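During the reporting period, our protein records have gained a structure token line. A sample record is set out beneath this paragraph:
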Amino acid sequence: QVELVESGGGAVQPGGSLTLSCTASQNISAVFMVGWGRQTPGSHQREFVAQINREGTAGYAASVKGRFTISRDNAKNMIYLQMNNVKSEDTAVYYCLYGANNWGQGTQVTVSS
């Protein structure tokens, strides 16, 4: 069972930037896709944010496209999410995803002035 540890969350003002990191205990090249999801306050569902495949092709939710950038470092087994121009609606717990259904414990991001 892979272990995923997210870091980099915290409080940020609207329009600011934040970079989330995820460390995987197993080789991320072993799975086709890694990504990020989030769960907003009051929601019982985790929503898709971004994903990136082994070849480096990325996909984004419409709500973050153009503001967030996902990347991966296969040598370090790290997955990143660069968040720019954040908005209050980006406030959520962000989770790292390894493969189809392996999630980390999450890191809180709070966007507030």
Notes: The two ends are 39 Å apart (CA to CA). The first strand starts at residue 4 and ends at 7. DSSP finds no helices and eleven strands in the chain.
